[in-house]
Queue: 3 jobs
Job 1
Amino acid sequence: MKPFPKLMLWAWERPEDLRSLDPAKVGVAYLCQTLTIHGDGLIRAPRLQPLRVPSGTRLMAVTRIEVDRASPITASDGLRDQIIEAVLQDLRPGVRGIQIDFDAKLLERPFYADLLRTLRQRMNAEMPLSMTALASWALFDDWIRDLPVDEAVPMCFDMGRDDRVIRDRLYRGQDFRDPLARRSVGIGLLQPPSKLPGGWFEHRRVYIFNHHSWNEANLKIVTTRYT
């Protein structure tokens, strides 16, 4: 993960003009596509909104994977290979890493693990592979321990029914179980964690999610706070 700075902004499917950021201090993990699984089939929705960044910005291409709950995953090598082909095709110039964003349910974990292992084998060996992780995975579970990723980013925002429990444990000084999940953290622009132990962010890469388009005002706030 050395090519990437300490602060990363998630740029989701909305128009984003980030030309005012300092590429020496801030990188961008942008949603490049959403893949929806229907049984053993796949529907690809590429990014349609513009993304503007200054020259030299370290970019991470994020693939969001979703499952049509009316047609659960029919795991197969063919489906896995379709996903990998979609992840690796037509990467934007300047992309220096890949991130997979998949909230896999318990029965989907073996398929997801196989997908990541095979993707790691087929992608550029020098390119880092990142994954997002539900905060509950990283705090209560250890199934991600042996996955071939360079980081697992615990998403400490929009945590639903687990929100209070997870925040209470973090505030008491309990860290995430797996070392992969201690290298970085994902937070929401409007849901910044408070009461965390001193120095908690010092040795972590911080990803920040904005539910709206970024602007110069909130870019200045996060750059001042986390760089």
Job 2
Amino acid sequence: MKYYEHTLIARQDISPSQIKQLQDKYTKIIEGNDGNILKFESWGLMHLSYLIKKNRKGNYLHFKIEGSGKTIKELEKTEKIDKNLLRFLTVKVKKLDLETDYFKKSEDNQKR
């Protein structure tokens, strides 16, 4: 099995329940194609560098996946026709970092 990091950018105007539905939908696709989600992170609503389909912000979802090329192919095939997604990106990695939460606010930043 190979390791992948997969990031989705969903439209800014979808509700938290729709974000949860997206997470569940893509989790089922990954697990249905012999994949395994090792970690899921919701990075929240962030500014985009440029307009994408008339959106200035996007909801970021990040999956750390163990699976095969077939798993990723099926996942991306479904994402291409999903109207709630602006962009997606899959990167194959040799080793996953499951410890670090890059977009989690640290306690030092919250006190300021």
Job 3
Amino acid sequence: MRLVTWNVNSLKARLPRVLEFVAQHEPDVVCLQETKCAPEAFPVAALAEAGYTAVHHSGGRWAGVAILARAGLELTDPRCGLAGEARPDQARWVEASVGGLRVASVYVVNGQAVGSEPWAEKLRFLAAMRDRVAALHGEPTVVMGDMNIAPDDVDVYDPAAFEGSTHVTAEEREALAGLAAAGGLLDAYRALYPVGAEDPNRTHFTWWDYRAGHFHKGLGLRIDLALVSEQLAPGLVRAGIERDYRKGTKPSDHAPLVVELTE
């Protein structure tokens, strides 16, 4: 099964790129973040024409998450939101069953500045994630999305430049590691490419700031992750970042992450 996570930074703006991607790569499941759609504006018809059904949690101008499944794979038992999250109206979590997996698409709160109210909301959201994945522990589960956390210093182009900032603090990293442990989940990319291992993808970053030519300078972060159940890890055959989709016409500031699992 081929699964993708991609923060598209507005599905309306990026729909042609999404349609291009699914035509080229033919994924089975696509998790989208930052769709920024009102519920009635989600492009159900355009995606259906491309061969995909969808479940989505849409909140309007901000956030928004969705799961797409190719024709023939039924999305069942959808669930939106997390018990305990501070701002459920922001539409940051959606999950459904597809192809024998429980799949979640998540867009973690950015946090803005350490010690701020959004920072507290981020930690609360991560705690709510921990509780939910703990409840799913034992089921074949994949949690994919923009975690807004770089798990390790190697996942940051210059750790010194981020000292004192969000995305790299011990609190965030410990919360991410804690929820992964609670759910029995592994970072698919790191399962295949441990720190220091040869990476055939040419880059392990998934996000580059639009400003100051960061993409072309290679100044990125690895903040988009696929967390998979431990029992699925032996079937991992690929975790690749499609860097070319950060180029071209109207790119998102994130690149898609593709994970492939054998049965």
